[in-house]
Amino acid sequence: MILFHPFSPDPAYLERRSETIDWLVNNSVNILDLGWEIITYPCEKTSDYEDKFRELWGKDDLIIWEHDIVPTMEAIIRLAECEYDLCVNDYPFWRLGYQPIYGKPAPLKYRSSCRNVAEDGSRQDSVDEWADYVGFGLTKINRKFQVEHELGMVHEDRWDNLDTRFCRWTYSLGYRWHVHRPMVKHNHYPEGR
Ligand SMILES: [Zn+2]
Question: What is the CA(179)–ligand 1 centre distance, in A?
Answer without folding.
Answer: 6
